[in-house]
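so my prof wants the structure for this chain in the tokens format not the other one, which i didnt know existed until like an hour ago. anyway here's the sequence
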Amino acid sequence: MYYANIDNLTYRTFAMTTAAILGFDDSYASVIGGYADMLQVANAHLRKQGAPTSSLFEWHFISGTGQPVRASNGLELAMRPLPRNRHYDLVFIPSFHYRGWESFQQFLGNQIVVRDWLVKQWKHGAWLSANCTGTFLLADTGLLDHRIATTTWWLEAHFRERFPNVDLRMRPAVTEVDRMICGGAQATFLLQTVRVISRFAGKAIAMQCARSMLIDLTQTMQMPLRPLIADATHNDPLIQRAQKWLTDHMAEAVRICDLANKLAVTERTLNRRFNIVINQTPLTYLQHLRIDTARALLEAGDLSTERIAQYVGYSDVSSFTRLFRERVGFTPSAYRKQFRFDEPECQHNIVDRPDSA
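here's what i got, hopefully its the right format
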């Protein structure tokens, strides 16, 4: 394949890059449309640099049946049918609204035709890019077996159970291996699109797209953003009582044996029930509870690291800082600098009005 370089901007000159953007009922319209919008921005930058038409991106919105799909927000999106004999350079699998594990498994089970089509596209050289919940559909093809991938943090346990042969990594926001790109939670589709633009149109064009769209390319890890305590609902009364007690006594010097005595069970029983219900030990749960609380305080307030450490039950600031960095990937001060929420500055204009007659 031939590439041209003008003013240090590299792009393909023979075949136009063709992309298939898959659509499903309950897909996120912002992801489907946003992916295409990013390719359109790339085309604008390519044209501005004098690139030939043959180097531009072309995309088709495609569904398994060719019928319109209804996005999760109710928007109806027109689609083309899966082309049986056409090979794309790039296929994007968007994220879909999650309505529970049972219905999600049923959805995946109904995608046999799409799965087979994805495998054929990859075998003919296509790049496959899957976002958030869409990573499950890509993994269902078997192509990710024994390869590195990522997924959205809140479905990690389900992903590991369903795809034990996938080398799942939860630190990176985006993974890439053997022409397959996986993104974590929904908004990572922006990082994924910049990645594929770089692969097909060159790094310079990709960087121009990122700058013009104000995409933060430094956000390469999921760790700083993902809550350590997953929102796992359960009906186990023992664990519910234990969780409430740990929350109420988080700032104290907690001993798990004291909690077990309070609940009238052995420490071994308490550990076993915690692992069964929420896949964590009581001590790990307590540490995650403290770190998540500290993150909220760092994001929203001005308390010092020392005060926050004491508030969440750590008398030794260095121990707190070390644990925080281990679990989140930042020191507390660096986390505050990166993620503190500040109200935007507003200017209020007061206009005098004449009194009403």
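also thought this was worth mentioning. The chain is about 45% helix and 15% strand.
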